[in-house]
Design goal:
Length: about 140
């Protein structure tokens, strides 16, 4: 993958680091530093589940905003993701479920917009194909 010629045509590249493990810090080369912690304790810090969820929500929402605009709709969507950590020693997994609510449109139209968004969102593309990932249009949050 590192020899993939598409790296030479990048629109944006960042580098992230973690040199301390789960109980420490993750950081971006340009200075952003985030305290990290396990979700299984009460130590301060952000856990991988939260980081993944925020990344997915941000990408889906930005993509949805573009899709709404392309369809001549006012931007009203909002995104929520639920990330669950499951498993046992040596085999842990995330379950990822995103919901996109599009007030002002019926559920059929919202479902079409969400399907288009899911295919275009970069983070969704990384997760797609996994049986642990799903996205749905909803009228309101569960």
């Amino acid at each position: 993958m590192k020899n993939d010629p598409r790296w030479q045509k990048a629109l944006y590249t960042t580098e992230t680091y973690n040199e301390e493990g789960l109980e420490g810090h993750a950081f971006v080369a340009d200075g952003l530093k985030v305290a990290t912690s396990s979700p299984l304790n009460d130590h301060p810090g952000t856990n991988p589940e939260q980081l993944l969820g925020m990344s997915l929500c941000t990408c889906l929402e930005a993509t949805m905003q573009a899709v709404e605009k392309e369809h001549g709709l006012k931007h009203t969507s909002k995104v929520r993701a639920k990330i669950t950590y499951i498993g046992e020693r040596a085999h842990y997994e995330f379950l990822v479920h995103a919901q996109i609510c599009v007030p002002g449109v019926d559920l059929d139209q919202a479902s079409q917009l969400v399907a288009e968004t899911e295919k275009r969102c970069c983070v969704s593309q990384l997760l797609s194909g996994s049986e642990n990932y799903s996205v749905e249009a909803v009228k309101e949050w569960d």
